[in-house]
Amino acid sequence: MKLAYWMYAGPAHIGTLRIASSFKNVHAIMHAPLGDDYFVMKSMLERERDFTPVTASVVDRHVLSRGSQEKVINNITRKDQEEKPDLVVLTPTCTSSILQEDLKNFVDRASLNSVADVMLADVNHYRVNELQAADKTLLQIVKFYLQKFKELNCLNQLKTIKPSVNIIGCVSLGFHNQHDLAELKRLFYDLNIEINLVIPEGIYVEELKRIPQAWFNFVPYKEVGVLTAQYLKDNFDMPFIDIVPIGVIQISNCIKAIQNILVSQDQKVDYTSYIDRQTRFISQSAWFSRSIDCQNLTGKKAVVFGDTTHASAITKILANEMSIKVVWSGTYCLNDAEWFTKEVEDICDQVVISDDHTLIADLIAETEPNAIFGTQMERHIGKRLSIPCGVISSPVHIQNFPLSYKPFLGYEGTNQIADLIYNSFTLGMEDHLLEVFGGHDTAKSLGSTLSTKFSMNWSPEALEELSKIPGFVRNKVKKNTEEFAQNSNVEQITLEIMYLAKESIRA
């Protein structure tokens, strides 16, 4: 547990709330102090008309003096009567854990007077983050209802007549999730595979009884859904695919894996011609990667950072499909470090596993890439360093919940990603011309570095001289000059020091 003003993955209760709010007619009770209830902004980010089905059971001074059992139970039973949900999920927070409250007992007591099922999200709020908690909460809900339906003898295990699939892991507040889901539905429609269930996005918990009817399960994101898919494989013998269909090569591998599963179930399918047709005529990225425009990116270097799903996929596209050098690729998902390393270690110079944004900032400053592909934090870092950044992963700003159709998955996703990559690089003399003609993007920050290793005092004359240097090399000149000054034990950089530093490099 640590204090930070920036976290790549939020606290555990946010993950639980994301799962609960993804289902229909499921209400979440968040036992937390005022200030933790910002999750209700979900409806704004997702551009929804309905209010977020979350109630804050506020921890205040009265709770601290008397305990919160009565308050929590009253909130559960009140929402059961007002909203008539199918399920109420109580999520603890760090505060409730510090108070050592027996929330399981609260849930058991509230269940006696509630029509709805009542469940405590069983996640360790000190050991798991938002993404891990979402994965575990989804598994907990699926297990609870499959066991319940099995005891009631209403679990339908008869397979659908046509090949069908459960898509597991599309949840609220996901990065481009709604658009990705639309693209996945189109893909399975093209492959003549029915969608049995999308779990949990937009379904009722009652519908979970239909899970075993699908021929296989599909997990589009590494962060959420794998635990549930593995449970279904172990207990219901349901195969699953977790190949992320981002990028032409990965989509092809994913479709071939689907074909192998169907063939193993006595289906005569061959998707070879479909892959060829989509790659040549629907996805423009395969053609674009061979075009003169993309060849202009040869020799450019990039860094990648994000969740495991998107960071690994973008790294593969940059290195394998667009021949762009990836200096380093990293993820903040520490729990998936081994998987991520295996995915990218052969196609980048260095693998970075960290959730420390200051370390990532210093690495970017030291690397001086031509473009960054990362989260909203890396976008902030890029702005300070005058390095363009394409946002490819959560956490993100509201601008990355677009109204227009911008999937990352599937063949249309390859077009969106190719545009993002190409437009993220500063091409030709673009930056220099902006400065020459006084464009609105003219850099005034003088390319200030985020690395504290060479932070020096500059004289006004030296700063003016630095401002005359074209933006695409200014950061490098600044860094080299500061390094020279530090090695020379100089406290202030003057024009003379700049010229001496320049001569030392030539020498």
From TrEMBL:
Needed co-factor(s): [4Fe-4S] cluster
Q: In which pathway does it act?
A: Porphyrin-containing compound metabolism; chlorophyll biosynthesis (light-independent)
**Signal sequence coordinates:** none
Catalytic activity reported: chlorophyllide a + oxidized 2[4Fe-4S]-[ferredoxin] + 2 ADP + 2 phosphate = protochlorophyllide a + reduced 2[4Fe-4S]-[ferredoxin] + 2 ATP + 2 H2O
State the top-level EC class: oxidoreductase
Subcellular location(s): the record lists: Plastid, Chloroplast
- Light-independent protochlorophyllide reductase subunit B-like C-terminal domain boundaries: 458-502
Q: Which SUPFAM superfamilies match?
A: Helical backbone' metal receptor (SSF53807)
Annotated positions binding [4Fe-4S] cluster: D36
InterPro entries from the entry? Answer: ChlB/BchB/BchZ, LI-POR_suB-like_C, Nase/OxRdtase_comp1, P-CP_red_C, Protochl_reductB, Protochlorophyllide_Rdtase
Name the active site residues: D293 (proton donor)
Instruction: Recite the UniProt keywords alphabetically.
Output: 4Fe-4S, ATP-binding, Chlorophyll biosynthesis, Chloroplast, Iron, Iron-sulfur, Metal-binding, Nucleotide-binding, Oxidoreductase, Photosynthesis, Plastid
Parts forming coiled coils: none
Domain of life of the native organism? Eukaryota
Start and end residues of each Nitrogenase/oxidoreductase component domain: 12-425
Q: What is its EC number?
A: 1.3.7.7
Q: Which PANTHER family match?
A: LIGHT-INDEPENDENT PROTOCHLOROPHYLLIDE REDUCTASE SUBUNIT B
User: Which family, according to UniProt?
Assistant: Belongs to the ChlB/BchB/BchZ family.
Q: How does it assemble?
A: Protochlorophyllide reductase is composed of three subunits; ChlL, ChlN and ChlB. Forms a heterotetramer of two ChlB and two ChlN subunits.
- Its protein name is Light-independent protochlorophyllide reductase subunit B
Source organism per UniProt: Corallina chilensis
The organism's lineage?
Eukaryota, Rhodophyta, Florideophyceae, Corallinophycidae, Corallinales
